[in-house]
């Protein structure tokens, strides 16, 4: 299990390895993402503002797009909004429709679905790596609102 600081350091190493610069804004966004699971750009902006960081929303969008391009974060559409998560560990996702909690699923959990999608050789997938991932919707059994009726 890596600490948040180790994950941020690894992400900055990856940015530099790709020829990018580890700007203050990029580091701040990585810190927010390391402390959460998946966040929209607006959520990232709100959390930055709560720490007193003066980084405007358009900069957050730009930083997230850059980090996604470098495959340091992956982009997952959840509930109609794009969310961003650190992509250092390949994973898929479950999402609670009530509280929005995102949990991570190991790649093996959807291996059979990907095998079926590619079985006839007419299609290949790229969901097993850093880009995107499968999203499984449901409801937490521990959600304060209770299970879906
Ligand atoms: Zn993810
Ligand atoms: Zn829930």
Automatic annotation (TrEMBL):
One Pfam family this sequence matches: FUR
UniProt entry keywords in alphabetical sequence: DNA-binding, Repressor, Transcription, Transcription regulation, Zinc
InterPro entries membership: FUR, Fur_C, WH-like_DNA-bd_sf, WH_DNA-bd_sf
Domain of life from the UniProt record: Bacteria
Membrane spanning stretches: none
UniProt cross-references to PANTHER family, sorted A to Z: HYDROGEN PEROXIDE SENSITIVE REPRESSOR, ZINC UPTAKE REGULATION PROTEIN
Family: Belongs to the Fur family.
This protein's name: Transcriptional repressor
Species annotation: Dactylosporangium darangshiense
């Amino acid at each position: 299990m890596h600490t948040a600081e180790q994950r941020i350091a690894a992400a900055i190493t990856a940015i530099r390895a790709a020829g990018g610069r580890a700007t203050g804004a990029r580091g701040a966004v990585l810190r927010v993402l390391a402390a959460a699971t998946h966040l929209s750009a607006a959520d990232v902006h709100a959390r930055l503002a709560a720490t007193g960081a003066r980084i405007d929303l358009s900069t957050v969008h730009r930083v997230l797009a850059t980090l996604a391009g470098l495959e340091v974060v992956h982009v997952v559409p959840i509930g109609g909004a794009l969310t961003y998560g650190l992509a250092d560990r390949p994973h898929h996702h479950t999402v609670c429709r009530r509280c929005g909690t995102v949990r991570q699923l190991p790649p093996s959990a959807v291996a059979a679905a990907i095998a079926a999608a590619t079985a006839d050789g007419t299609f290949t997938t790229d969901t097993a790596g850093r880009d995107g991932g499968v999203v499984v919707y449901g409801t937490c059994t521990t959600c304060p609102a209770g299970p879906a009726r």
